[in-house]
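subagent[fold] <- orchestrator: predict structure for attached chain, return tokens only, no commentary.
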Amino acid sequence: METHLDNVGPILKKHSLRGTFFVTTGVAAWRKRLAEWQRLAAEGHEIGGHTVNHPCLLERIEPHAQDYTPQMMEAEVRDSAQTILREIPGQHGLTFAYPCGNMSFGPPVDQTRNAALYQRYISEHFFAARSYGWAGTVVPDELSVLSVPDLGFTAGHDFRGLLAMADPALRNHRWGVFTFHGVGGQWLSVTTEALDELASYLARHPEIWTAAFGDVVRYIQESKALGIHQAESTDHQIQFELTWPLDAQTFYLPLTLQWQLPGGWTSCSASAEGKPLAVKGSSGAVLFDVPAQTRSLRIEKK
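subagent[fold] -> orchestrator:
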């Protein structure tokens, strides 16, 4: 949407936050302002897919997804991904948002079968997908990567209303996804003031991790897949071997590891493949960020 470029980008930049912009590559707001989308990506925002023409099952939306064959929907998904990869340099792995939150297409009699086809098409070009309006939070161990729920409909909410939507995620230490359409105009809109206040709140609370959609999926999937094996140990040092089975081109975020100091240790140093890591904490449990694809980790007593 035009308001994403005009209003959302500057608000996120003001508060040093990163977001995901799911773009419909067949509309004028993408074609005529491509350089601005490229600039958003260069500033660290994620550009995700939202098909080419935005077909969905709402009656007032054209084109209407009931009129779509599998071949037509496959082209919508494939061509949007190819366009983004061609126009946005440095993209490694794409995420997707279902138009109108509809996870199927075609006439009603075919929609159960087509739902499986739709997810197959998405999985061939995107590594995760966000639904819309399902109003839920995400428990990382139960993540379903092709149907991640959001926190519900944001349209018309002020800052306090938006913050209340996030409360179940904050209270239960889960992932909550905010979905916005228009901001300061256009349709299903919130005011710029509401988004600005929400962004300000999140920026002032670093204990709340606020990140682009794809980066949260990356972090969850990497943390679930990472293998850690103790290779050797002495009274003064411990060596670990790490395995990262996911595709390194898509899953490249560092992971924060927590380690419990052994008895008799009051502090430690850590290094990944010989390079020192910053260690947080000095007694009990310590934290350190390990770059993706690190194969060896050494912890030494200080």
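orchestrator: received. Logging for downstream: The longest helix spans residues 70-87. The chain has two domains: 2-219, 226-301.
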